[in-house]
Amino acid sequence: MSHPLPPLFERAVGVVVGGFVHEGHMNGPGEPKNNWAGAESMGLAEPSGRAADTWEHFDRVIEAVLGLGADHVVTSLEWARISPKKGEIREDVIANYGDQLNALRVAGIHPMVRLGTGVTPWWAGEEFWLMPGSPETFVATMVEVVVALGVNAASWVSHGEWWKTAISGWLTGEAPPFRKLAVADLRLVLDNLLTAHVLLAHELHQRGVEHLSFELPNGPYEFSQALAVALEAATRGDDICAAVESARPEHDRVALWLAALDPFGVSGNTPAAVSPFMAKLLRGKNTPRWFTEAQRLAGELSASPVAQHLAPPVSPKFAPPLTVSLTRPQATRQGPRALPRSFGHEPWFVDEVVTTVRHGVVTSRPFSGGMPGYFAQRRAQLEEIAGPVRYTYNSLVDGYLNGSFAARTGIFGVDRARGHRGLSWMTTDAAGNDAAAAFRELATAVRKSNPA
Predict the structure, then answer these.
(1) Which helix (H) or strand (E) holds 159?
(2) Tell me, what's the pLDDT at 215?
(3) How is the chain split among helix, strand and coil, in percent rounded to 5?
(4) pLDDT, tens only, 389-406
(5) Beta partners for 16?
(6) What per-residue confidence (pLDDT) applies to 370?
(7) pTM of the model
């Protein structure tokens, strides 16, 4: 029996779980292969193995999330597992994902599902997101998957960590295809990822999905804000540079350099703010495809009866599938920052503070108080924010990231001492701290608080 989707609390607290980094059982003999398979087989990356083994033991996830007092999770569906061969959709895999989502709903946990991640099927190639037609290939599969699972089975997110996928794959060389400083190709990859969001939003909207969320990059706040404004402006047919310019409170040297590297032309710097050369570099030679598609589809949607009968804060003029409901502002020393309420979006925070790795020794957090101290600090910051707040910590359990198990940032650590014979979840984090207790205190305090 399928249970209805639980509502989110106005002040909600959740965790990220699932996907390749946690599920495991990929790239081994007889297992589905993804774009990390080549690196693993050549010894360039540690075999992912069972990871945290959530694919076969999802009950651990339910138990852990309930114990933390979390009310929602951000999880993902792995394309390489769903479609191990080109054109194939594994019904048994879809059924297992369906059972997982239903188990979350039965437990009163709201699932928010990333349809795409940085992991693609082996058959698609490591350079998949650079290729022409990649948005259409991705969209065709994900439409079929969402319909099979049920359009109301979860809140849907087009692509998780799309910005990180592009940067780590084509700029820093940390992930497939391991390219470095391929700036021209990076622009095309980002355009394809954004185009996939726009096209998927339109297709799912036609099938009854009111909102397809979009994650903004966990990078400079000004860029996240600019991209949110640009997406809205594109659906209205407005000039994106003018829209972003009016939303930006100030310019600084760092923002100008960001503008020069911005492949979208949305960071708000017009020739009045930068030199004509920089403005040309900002815009590039061609209008990004995502922008063209957004404007084309917005016209169709704004004229439809569905768009005209949406409840606030979505206006009839703004195509609902392009609503930006996930924002990932930079976590600063002053605490997390949210997009202004004037954009019609609730504040949303996803923590992704990078761990410190020195000579193979991994610290749980670059914070003197460890994970408990970190959560205490976050709790104090979130309690001060008035109105709706949804806070999502980036890792329920240690997993596999960028080719190794070195990044140990989970609320629960994983003991892999038995190697291929199995693994077990720890009751503490990797450093031995009771991070779970600190997180429970955070969740309770944030929900109860609501400063005027």
Answers:
(1) strand 155-159
(2) 74
(3) 40, 10, 45
(4) 788 888 899 988 888 887
(5) 74
(6) 80
(7) 0.82
HEC assignment per residue over the chain: CCCCCCCCCCEEEEEECCCHHHHCCCCCCCCCCECCHHHHHCCCCCCCCCCCCCCCCHHHHHHHHHHHCCCEEEEECCHHHHCCCCCCCCHHHHHHHHHHHHHHHHCCCEEEEEEECCCCEHHHCCCHHHCCCHHHHHHHHHHHHHHHHCCCCCEEEEECCHHHHHHHHHCECCCCCCCECCHHHHHHHHHHHHHHHHHHHHHHHHCCCCCEECECCCCCHHHHHHHHHHHHHHHHCCCHHHHHHHHCCCCCHHHHHHHHHCCCCCCCCCCCCCCHHHHHHHHCCCCCHHHHHHHHHHHHHHCCHHHHCCCCCCCCCCCHHHCCCECCCCEECCEECCCCHHHCCCCEEECCCCCCEECCEECCCCCCCHHHHHHHHHHHHHHCCCCCEEEEECCCECCCECCECCCCCCCECEECCCHHHCCEECCCCCCCCCHHHHHHHHHHHHHHCCCC
Q: Which amino acid is at 76?
A: S
DSSP string for 166-233: HHHHHTB-SSTT--BS-HHHHHHHHHHHHHHHHHHHHHHHHTT---EE-BPPSS-HHHHHHHHHHHHH
Number of other residues whose CB lies within 10 A of the CB of residue 332: 10
Give whole-number Cα distances, 38 to 117, 163, 403, in Å.
18, 22, 11
Which of 41, 126, 122 lies closest to 79, judged by CA?
122
Number of Cβ within 10 Å of residue 409's Cβ equals 25
CB distance 355 to 365 below 8 Å? yes
CA–CA separation, 193 and 191 (whole Å): 5
- pLDDT for 452 equals 58
Q: What is the pLDDT of residues 348-384, one digit of tens each?
A: 444 443 333 333 333 444 455 688 888 888 888 888 8
- The token duo for 380 is 């104090």
Contacts of 31 (CB under 8 A, 6+ apart): 25
Domain 11-200+209-216+324-448 CATH assignment equals 3.90.650.10: no
pLDDT lower than 50: segments of the chain: 251-254, 256-257, 259-261, 263, 265-284, 301-366
What are 232's two structure tokens? 């809205």
